Structure to design on (404 residues):
């Protein structure tokens, strides 16, 4: 499945680093993933959940909060409030470049952040928490003995998950703003709570607090043998499959119109983002068209001229094979190399108009086999008779209409 490395600015103008996992087929909706406290976007649980969701048709953006992973900024200057602003910036990035996110997923403290920021994101239809505390203030216990030092120092070095982090007193003061569950009751969005009863980092009691404060529709799923970080890949896979199945009931079916079957011989082109990525569908098949990154695209597929060359090249090869088989010619392999360029008519001896640019397709055919010169020359003639070649050389009429 394609992955796009995303870069976008937070409210302070600092660049945040993200990864957008895209489905190989149609995008049913976009999701925003908030990872656990001090983790990065490359956290195994976040990565595994995102990949499985993408396989289910849900595009997922996960990113590093300010000062973490590949994002700019100083972690010591961040706090829970700045995390919420980072989530808003990520949602804006998706809306401007792809589509507004419909799902908001948060793991651990990221779950508390998802609950706190959801009301500010109008596009969000459903919120999912994984091993999350009901309030941000819950994480103060992670600081252990270091917490007492904040009354005497403005900045304290604390050990979290085996790593040292500088935490400023303003971080602790900011947590006090988020010590109520009132916002959960006012969520007005579908809520799915996933939590393990053996989670030793965030107690299952926190899931009960969230569930008790929330209004319906709300659901709870027990991750019975999972640890807090979903270290077992099977647990991450299960979480993602539950989210995908749950979202179909509450979200996706309401968002998407029923797709009409595509008739034989019809080609449909749909947007996959607000840049250049396009999904091309026929009765049985799908492929992606795009532009290179240097031209503002995401480089996820063929550009339009490459598709045009591919049509000519594949038709040429098919036509040669059909003729060789019919005539029982010992043609063992066919390789067609194509290039497109635009040249001035001054450089073209066969051009009628002068002082103009024309499109030139150069096709080089390599034939392998026990072939006589007569057979090779005849195969060249046959190549020039392939249907796409004849279509491109004939005068083409394109009728364009606007549908209702």
């Amino acid at each position: 499945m394609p992955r796009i490395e995303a870069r976008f600015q937070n409210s302070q103008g600092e660049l945040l680093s993200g990864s957008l996992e895209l489905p190989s087929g149609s995008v049913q909706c976009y999701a925003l993933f908030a990872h656990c406290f001090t983790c990065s976007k490359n956290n195994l649980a976040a990565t595994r959940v995102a990949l499985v969701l993408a396989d289910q048709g849900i595009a997922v953006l996960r990113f590093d909060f300010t000062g973490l992973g590949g994002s700019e900024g100083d972690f010591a200057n961040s706090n829970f409030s700045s995390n919420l602003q980072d989530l808003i910036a990520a949602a804006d990035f998706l809306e401007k470049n792809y589509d507004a996110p419909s799902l908001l997923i948060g793991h651990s403290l990221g779950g508390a952040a998802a609950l706190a920021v959801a009301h500010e994101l109008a596009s969000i239809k459903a919120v999912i928490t994984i091993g999350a505390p009901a309030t941000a203030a819950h994480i103060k216990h992670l600081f252990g003995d270091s917490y007492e030092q904040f009354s005497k120092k403005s900045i304290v070095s604390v050990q979290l998950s085996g790593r040292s982090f500088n935490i400023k007193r303003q971080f602790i003061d900011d947590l006090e703003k988020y010590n109520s569950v009132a916002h959960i009751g006012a969520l007005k969005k579908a809520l799915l709570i996933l939590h393990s009863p053996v989670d030793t980092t965030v107690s299952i009691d926190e899931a009960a607090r969230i569930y008790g404060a929330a209004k319906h529709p709300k659901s709870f799923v027990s991750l019975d043998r999972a640890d807090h970080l979903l270290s077992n890949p099977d647990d991450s896979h299960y979480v993602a499959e539950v989210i995908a199945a749950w979202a179909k009931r509450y979200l996706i079916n309401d968002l998407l119109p029923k797709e009409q079957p595509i008739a034989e011989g019809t080609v449909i082109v749909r947007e996959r983002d607000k840049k250049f990525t396009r999904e091309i569908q026929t009765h049985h098949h799908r492929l992606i068209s795009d532009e290179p990154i240097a031209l503002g695209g995401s480089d996820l597929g063929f550009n339009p001229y490459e598709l045009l060359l591919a049509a000519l090249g594949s038709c040429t090869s098919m036509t040669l094979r059909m003729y060789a088989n019919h005539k029982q010619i010992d043609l063992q392999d066919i390789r067609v190399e194509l290039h497109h360029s635009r040249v001035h008519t001054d450089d073209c001896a066969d051009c009628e108009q002068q002082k103009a640019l024309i499109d030139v397709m150069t096709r080089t055919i390599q034939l392998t086999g026990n072939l006589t010169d007569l057979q090779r020359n005849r195969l060249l003639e046959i190549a020039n008779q392939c249907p796409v070649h004849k279509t491109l050389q004939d005068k083409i009429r394109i009728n364009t209409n606007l549908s209702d």
Remarks:
- The radius of gyration is 28 Å.
- The CA atoms of residues 200 and 228 lie 7 Å apart.
